[in-house]
Amino acid sequence: MSHVKYLLFWGSGNRHKMRELIRNYVRNMRLGMEVPIVKFEPVSAGPYYFGIAVNLDDPMQTEPNARLTAMLQDLGIKNKMVRNDSEHSAFHEANKISTLVTEKFEYASFLEPIRFEKAECNIDINDDDIFGGDFIDDYEYTAEEQLMDHLLWWCSAKGEGSWGLFKDAVKLLRLTETTQGGAWAVMRRFVLLGDIEAVTAGRKFEWGVTPTALVKSALAGAYISGKMTPAWRKKLTGVSLTSSNGGPTRVSVNPSVLIEGLPILIDPAGKLASVLPYYSEWEVLLPVDPDIAVHKYSFKIYDGQGFVRLNDIETMPPGLYEATRNEGQFAPKVVFYDGLRWLSGAYYDLRWLMIRSNGQMMNAIINKADELFIPEMSRWPMIYERSLVLASGKLPRKEKFGDMDVLVYESVGRELAQKLADKLGIDLQEG
Amino acid sequence: MLDYEKWNAAIIDFFTHDIRKGKSVYLTVNHKTLQDIGKSYLDLDCELAVSKFINAVKEKCTKYENAQQHVCIASLRTSDEKGKPLGVAFLSAMVLAAYQMSGKDDIDNTNYFKRLCELLDVVQGSQGRPVGMELYHNTDEVSLWLTWNAWLESNGLASTARQGKEGPLKFLNYTIEQSLLRFDDVEFLQKVFSSHLNFHEALRSLDETQLRDWMLRQHFNRRHLRAGLESLDADRASAFFDEAYEVYSIWSQSEENDGEAFTSRRLNAGIQRRSFKGIVSYWLLPRRPIRWKTVQLRVRNSEGEYKTLEPYRDGLFEPLWPIEPFVDTSQSFLVEGDDAIRDIIFPKRDFWILTPDPDDKYGLYATWEKYPTGNEKKYLILLKGNTDSKLSTQMRVFKEWKLLDWDGDPQVKDGWVEYHGCMVLSSAWDCINPMPEAEELFHSLKPKENVTASLSGGLKAPQQAAWLEDYPPSLIVHGFEKEFEVIVRVGNNELIKEKVYAQNPFILSVCKDSGMYNIEVIWNKKIVANRSLKVISWDEISANSIDCLKWVEIGKKKICGPLIKYEEVPHVSC
What we know:
The structure holds 2 protein chains of 2 kinds. By secondary structure, chain A is α+β, with helices and mostly antiparallel strands. Among the domains of chain A are: 3-109, Alpha-Beta Plaits, CATH 3.30.70; 134-266, no CATH class; 287-344, no CATH class. Chain A contains 13 helices and 24 strands. In chain A, strands 1, 2, 3, 4, 5 and 6 form a 6-stranded antiparallel sheet that branches. In chain A, a hairpin with a 2-residue loop joins strand 22 (397-401) and strand 23 (404-409). In chain B, the strands form 6 sheets. A 6-stranded mixed sheet of chain B has the order 4-3-8-7-5-6, with helices on one face. In chain B, strands 9, 10, 11, 12, 13 and 14 form a 6-stranded antiparallel sheet that branches. In chain B, a hairpin with a 3-residue loop joins strand 13 and strand 14. In chain B, helix 2 (31-42) crosses helix 3. The longest helix of chain B has 23 residues, at 234-256. The chains are: A alpha+beta, B alpha+beta. At the A-B interface, helix 3, helix 4, strand 7, helix 5 and strand 8 of A face helix 10, strand 14, strand 24 and strand 25 of B.
């Protein structure tokens, strides 16, 4: 904390000259931090008071130090000092000096001003760009699982946070360099694995880590989901660490092991599948983007391969669009137009909706090893995909069948696959 | 268990419970803290607590030998069965003796030990020290302080007991720096409050920030008190303000109760700003009492409804409900569940200074800090009234004189005005005399430091006041000069000495490994800012103990990761 007090002087003659004299001395001797300001009584003629502010090391100091004394001597004002006799000190408190040099005084400051830093963003800004980069999450990376572990540990320590904070952490850990896609591509892996839940609050996006739980799946043994730290993980016995196909390390546990104090969740994949709605009801739950208006945005439409510019905005067909605001600097967002409403959501959810609304038949294959094969082009909406991922505690792996990319989910089983396929109107085949 | 051990364990718990990791701990033992410890931990009558404590220390730490009573603390160099250092109650007695000394002048070595000998009924020996506690004979108290410091640090807390400069107070400094307000400082403050703050109800219900700003304007002519309140070490100054606020709370309640003794404390509340679809609201944000012993508390709102007080961030309870930020008289909300806590007070104010979330720069603005300082962050100023009010007029004067600036235009709401992104630009606040109505605002905004060193960026270990290895922060110096010199040390080892420019981030890449670093900002060969940086390994990161469940609605069900909520939320935590 700074302790500023004043030395008071009685001056005569040209006070502007005196001010320049003091200013030059302070600048030349680099005394600005010690002598930050000088104040003058603005009289039209005759003698005047002036106060030199001094930044003291010790608030109880009563006499100027050697440097200050030298300054007063060099300026020739040492014998013009008005002492504070009531406190037996050379210094006067700032509030007292203000009254001595009158209400309207002149001053000179010897310190450098601080540069005003413009705001990075409006504090009420929306998180409209969260799904940016979603559609290039293709699971083809060799994931840095250690970095994903670090991110989960950090999120566990934080507990909850804003979208911006998560994005910063992803960037710092350089996860967007080792995995394809943006921060949302990283977040969706945690969400699918049930480690983090993500919600929108108004137009802000928030996330929170789920509580640590022992998940017992129907076909893939047991694993731990949610909050995790390295110290806690090290304490566990009888666990094995395996790959989750691009998420944080899967902590596999012998299903017969009980970990004291840890809640057990039995077959959450099956339970989630039971409570999920049919796709027609799910579609109704998708939020409408109130901001989209034809005159405010430029649009590109998805043609099955990518987004192409749409010139005729008068007759916009239903479909998947990339909308870019005409004014300001906003990331483009992907929205689905159903002919009446602009629906927002994750890219894969909207792409699936587009295929469904086009009336295209979608299929999936379950094999005898309980693996479910879904064409990447018709990847399921995320909430349904979460059920598939929770069945194993692993993200899907990607395989190629001819030209087609296929996502393979392990340990799904016929029953769960059928339940979800029925809800989504998918033709499930055995293979 | 012997009385001494009970006191020892209780004192340690009292001073370290509910303290966020990384925070400084002062062993500020005085009559009031001993009464609180006696009542809360040992079920003792307040009147007897101090004498019982002294007797327990005397019984354990002194003995009669060679026809004289002398100190014997050799057995305190170990730990109790829970690993807590056994010497803390003895050190507390030493601090109590310092508390009883005069705060008006510097403590004198001889006088201090005379006081300690009287307290413990022992004889003074060489160097004035109690017999049996001579220096350099492995019988002194220094090793007890070092053990206490080491225990605090191993528990993630910052120790504060330090050796002094060479001279007679070199070792005594460990003890005397722990005693913040001394006995006569307390008496002095009570008198000052009575003579200056007793003529208006609003002055008897100031919050911590208001009292700090008021005290700093008083320029008390007491060396120890002023050095503490105006300390360059922000943690130490905060500890002094906390102590002074305790004195103020007791004084204000005793004034209210016609001099009746203080029975229960009041909690202050600030506000948290929320924005939903363009609509801004303010929520009541209560502060947790310092050294709070966790108990279930509930609070009644003005409609008579109850709400549980849940621990939230550092020193805060969860925000309770929306509230008008400006009220005509301070509001009180009754608290139930602990006799020691009476109510939550929402003060009458004409302005609020809201700072960004210290743990999330994209988060909410609130009165996060009790004692906001520094020029290093931009904040939001909320003023009562509209843009024609006297406070708004004064804000324009601040801007005109280039003392302060803000982003965009002020945002006028119903009954208040928000100034976003406010930043102090100059230290020359003495160049204007504020209008009387704006004097409090003026003194709150006037920079209290010429130079601040802040840490930004990097990967911060949440809840631990530390950064994670390999992801150190950058140092940003805000000050009223262009260039500074920075020295980074580990212990006495100087790692780098570099020139830095004001407001330009300087990446602390020398601080990648786990450890404790000290950063000194130097101008003109003088240390003008100083701060420590703790870097921890990934193994040291600890999970947030508070459940922060986010639920996604799917029709009538809610899901959170693998959890499904059918009716009630299952309560699970790790």
